[in-house]
Specification:
12 strands; 426 residues; alpha/beta; Rossmann fold; 15 helices; 7-stranded mixed β-sheet; Outer Surface Protein A, domain 3; elongated; 3-stranded antiparallel β-sheet
């Protein structure tokens, strides 16, 4: 072990005997009491010294081995210690690619703040390279989401859309003006490649390019159902969304490994109605396969992010439609008219709002891929121009929806209740 205080967290002395690591309340930790010798020892934790050398230098500061061991344990338990050599072989491959690492240093630093274990930031960045995400839509929102996910290190980002790019599809971070008149999916693939910090993992030898191909025993359905159960019970799921298949990255192709299953689908169509009121039948195959999916878009100068649907565990598009019909009996009638009526030639999709929606959606997608359940899990966030007051609306399972999430939630409640009774009886 080569202990290193996480450089992403700024240090400051709160007083003569207390050191605070971090500025913001979300991640700040205070350590104390810290005497002068211990403070000097903290300066040695820069990742260049192993434990034997650290103990030797501690003795020169009149610090015992036990004091050093207790201090390192406290720092590790507080999530303040990193170890640049503890992230595993996949991270070693990534670390050897200097240009890629230089591009990703801010991302790794951010991950080190939110992943408490030593080497956790680099380990998660290496895991992203083996993930596969599909973005459905290549307009101002969808193309920007795909660009951010690719730039953030997701190894496989597929973009699906039809037609040809128009001038109003152009956006900074999205499709460039040179793409106007080109097929949207072709232009989006070029954007994804250009945004990536380096070449992605190579496909297994002999594998066909079939978007829905899953690895037996390690498919999106299995990972999605695990995440679904966690979502229903409110638990954090380490590694949720991480495909079980291992595909070699770097120099050579993977032998005997399959194309990884989809970790996530991001639904970001150019028609914002398909996000604000998504069609349940469109999501049917994703529910059946257990594939997590996240909605994001803009409709009539209103930005929408969420819900993140964990099939069988959280409310889905069908649940949302049924809840709305319960509140407003005229909703199905109006929705049928909106879906079948003539669409405007140009959507009311403000560039700044589209960029904000894309950034928020990409951040929530990455949080899920990294193993957390973001605030869009079973909820949607909306903000309308001009005030942009972001508000959250829970999207709970509906008892009449065929997705089965309501039954899963009831079973979880029954199990929880039985456990509480057992605890009381004991």
């Amino acid at each position: 072990m080569y202990p290193m205080l996480k450089p992403a967290l700024r240090r400051a002395w709160r007083g003569r005997n207390t050191v605070q690591f971090g500025v913001t309340p979300a991640h700040a930790v205070a350590l104390g009491p810290v005497d002068l010798a211990t403070g000097s020892f903290l300066e040695l934790l820069d990742g260049t010294r192993g434990l034997p050398l650290l103990r030797e230098e501690a003795r020169a500061l009149d610090l015992s081995e036990r004091h050093v061991d207790v201090l390192l344990r406290r720092l590790a338990e507080a999530g303040l210690l990193d170890d640049p050599r503890a992230a595993g072989p996949e991270a070693d491959v990534l670390r050897q690619r200097a240009e890629v690492m230089d591009r990703q240093r801010p991302d790794v630093a951010s991950l080190s703040v939110v992943r408490p274990e030593p080497g956790g930031g680099l380990r998660r960045m290496a895991a992203r390279r083996e993930m596969r995400v599909q973005v459905r839509g290549a307009g101002r929102v969808g193309a920007s989401i795909a660009s951010v996910l690719s730039g953030a290190g997701v190894g496989r980002v597929e973009v699906l859309d039809g037609g040809r790019a128009e001038l109003w599809d152009v956006a900074p971070g999205g499709l460039p003006q040179a793409a106007v008149g080109e097929r949207r999916d072709v232009a989006a693939r070029r954007l994804v490649r250009r945004s990536a910090p380096g070449p992605g993992p190579r496909r297994a030898v002999g594998e066909a390019e079939r978007p829905g191909k899953a690895v037996p025993g390690a498919g999106a359905g299995a990972s999605g159902r695990r995440a679904s159960r966690a979502g229903a019970s409110g638990m954090r799921t380490p590694g949720a969304g991480v495909p079980g298949a291992r595909v070699e990255t770097g120099a050579g192709p993977a032998l005997g490994a399959g194309e990884p299953a989809l970790s996530l689908i991001v639904v970001a169509p150019r028609d914002g109605l398909a996000v604000y009121a998504p069609a349940a039948e469109t999501a049917g195959p994703w529910i059946a396969s257990g594939t997590p999916h996240l909605y994001a878009g803009v409709i009539e100068a209103t930005g929408v992010v969420g819900p993140l649907v964990l099939p069988g565990g959280t409310g889905c598009a069908g649940c949302l439609e049924l809840h709305r019909a319960d509140r407003d009996p005229q909703w199905p009638r109006m929705l049928a008219q909106w879906r079948s009526g003539r669409r405007g030639a140009v959507p009311a999709c403000d560039l700044a709002l589209a960029t904000a929606v894309a950034g928020l959606a990409a951040a929530h997608a990455l949080a899920f891929l990294d193993g957390d359940l973001p605030a869009t899990t079973g909820a949607r966030w909306e903000a309308a121009l001009p005030l942009l007051d972001w508000r959250s609306e829970p999207i709970g399972p509906h008892a009449d929806c065929s997705c089965g999430a309501a039954g899963e939630v009831e079973r979880d409640r029954a199990v929880t209740g039985a456990g509480a009774q057992d605890t009381m009886a004991g």
